[in-house]
Design brief:
- By secondary structure, the chain is an alpha+beta fold.
- It folds into 4 domains: 92 residues, Nucleotidyltransferase, domain 5 (2-Layer Sandwich); 176 residues, OB fold (Dihydrolipoamide Acetyltransferase, E2P), CATH 2.40.50.140; 117 residues; 72 residues, Hypothetical Protein Ychn, Chain: A.
- The protein is 32% helix and 27% strand.
- Strands 4, 5, 6, 9, 10 and 15 form a 6-stranded antiparallel β-sheet that branches. Strands 18-19-20-21-23-22 form a 6-stranded mixed β-sheet, covered by helices on one side.
- The longest helix is centred in the middle third of the chain and has 24 residues.
- It is globular.
- The N and C termini lie far apart (72 Å).
Length: 495
């Protein structure tokens, strides 16, 4: 598998596309104004301690003071064990005995500011790498709980040997991330060196920077390209900004020297994403229907609970018999679905409804092809077999917002339902509402303010029903068309 990485940079947005065999497989987007603070490390200043709430407010240079609870204050325990905080609901060490007003304190953001609430902080610093998480204040070496229990002891022993003791390696604790399960010793050692170098830089900045300074910012998307996305199979990394190319090359020379040789500055006249029609692919990835080359198609529906994918033959009639037509459509769909999951970054529970196949060998071949394509995904996936209803159930780990959630918002007209009431249904809602109001109030006249389509229907096909209601309640009913209103919107004004 050979891949190219294309980076389109602008002051407001960075877009990264991963292309394999001429087709875009993944798209990553980061917008400057929407970038969060989680992971950032600050040298804060304690502005107020609240013993009654066992909390403190910390000024880190933001508009609102940030919030530190005693449960998020790091406390070293004997034997390098994680901190213990509560006994019978009370903190082990009260916050007023740990921090004081005016104190300079190194803190990390663990939750972004929301509404009127400030950011939430922790003094337990953790630095995420590509394969590991570094805990500089601990000596503990651990493994992600998501890795199968049978493999954890061996992985922990490998990691312990690489980390070494304080004298040889610099100390600190490490946790192996899920995506580091299959990493080589060389890859782990490279990540350990990168994380320790980052921590050394943070400590140095804390000594020379004043309070309320940003000491460390979690990597932006450009830098995460080198940390998370580049592999041995990456051929080139092309970026269309000379300034960002130089910045990325400097970062790579310091932390990821193996990736620097793959960096290229794109100087072409055409926009870089036009090379592989990436913008067109993104537009398709935001739609429900995905056309297959054979003439078949997929219908992808994303809901809050799960995502469903329906496979249809469409215009594909095949050349031999009905079973072969279905089999070939499902094989092509298996490849397309795996790509769409990556491109749309769909996570959670996913239900795939392949076209029903009568032959067992066809089912197994389609399932094998589907699992083969899923194995190329850098995000962890699990796929079961065909259920009694002919469905394939699978899960894909959520790593970030899906492409649709990032680029789109619910429709103002339908509020995300995907459909609106017909004009006739709205007319009948209005008639019922007028009758309800007439039983409670005694106005001189009822005025209906609604969308042009609803008003037009009242003037035409529903005029008899409107006149009949007016006679029944013995009040005139007038109509007012409002083009700014959606089809389901209306007002009934009592005059």
């Amino acid at each position: 598998m050979q891949q190219d990485i294309l980076i389109n940079w602008s002051p407001q947005e960075t877009r990264v596309a991963i292309v394999e065999h001429g087709a875009v497989q993944e798209l990553h987007v980061e917008r400057t104004l929407e970038r969060g603070l989680v992971g950032n490390v600050y040298l804060g200043k304690v502005s107020r301690v609240l013993p009654g709430m066992q909390s403190a407010f910390i000024d880190i240079g933001l508009e609102r003071a940030a919030f530190l609870h005693v449960a998020d204050v790091w406390q070293r325990q004997e034997g390098g064990e994680p901190p213990a905080f509560a006994r019978k609901g009370e903190p082990l060490v009260p916050i007023e005995k740990q921090v004081f007003e005016g104190q300079a304190l190194m803190v990390q953001v663990i939750k972004d500011p929301i509404g009127t609430k400030g950011a939430r902080l922790s003094t337990q610093i953790s630095i995420a790498g590509r394969l590991l998480v570094f805990l500089p204040q601990d000596d503990h070496v651990g493994v992600s709980q998501k890795i199968p229990a049978a493999e954890r002891d061996a992985l922990r022993a490998r990691l312990q040997a690489l980390v070494g003791d304080k004298a040889s390696g610099g100390g600190g604790g490490f946790i192996l991330r899920t995506n580091g399960e299959d990493a080589t010793d060389a890859e782990l050692a490279e990540d350990i060196a990168y994380l320790r170098k980052t921590w050394a830089r943070i400590k140095e900045a804390a000594l020379r920077q004043p309070s309320m300074s940003l000491l460390h910012q979690d990597l932006d998307l450009l830098q995460r390209v080198l940390r998370d996305l580049v592999g041995d199979y990456t051929q080139t990394i092309r970026i269309d900004s000379m300034e960002q190319f130089q910045r990325l090359r400097a970062f790579g020379q310091e932390f990821m020297p193996a990736a620097v040789g793959k960096l290229q500055h794109y100087k072409g006249e055409r926009p870089i994403f036009d090379l592989y029609s990436i913008d067109e692919e993104v537009a398709k990835a935001l739609g429900r229907r995905v056309d297959l080359k054979s003439g078949g198609y997929l219908i992808v529906d994303q809901t809050e609970a799960l995502t469903t994918v329906d496979v249809n033959t469409g215009g594909y009639v095949g050349a031999r018999n009905f079973d072969d037509t279905i089999f070939k459509t499902n094989l092509e769909a298996a490849q397309a679905i795996a790509r769409q999951l990556r491109l749309r970054n769909l996570g959670g529970i996913i239900i795939v409804d392949f076209i029903d196949m009568a032959r067992e060998d066809h089912q197994q071949a389609v399932l094998a092809e589907f699992r083969k394509q899923l194995a190329r995904d850098r995000v962890k996936t699990m796929a079961g077999g065909f259920s009694h209803l002919g469905l394939v159930e699978m899960t894909r780990k959520r790593t970030r917002e899906s492409l649709a959630h990032m680029l789109c918002e619910p429709c103002e007209a339908c509020q995300g339902k995907g459909s609106v009431k017909t004009a006739r249904s709205v007319c009948y809602d209005i008639l019922r509402e007028i009758l309800r109001e007439a039983r409670q109030f005694n106005p001189r006249e009822f005025r209906v303010v609604a969308s042009p389509r609803v008003v037009e229907l009242f003037l035409d096909e529903e005029s008899q029903h409107l006149a009949g209601l007016s006679d029944f309640i013995k009040k005139p009913i007038s109509l007012q068309s409002e083009s700014a209103m959606g089809q389901e919107q209306y007002d009934i004004v009592l005059l």
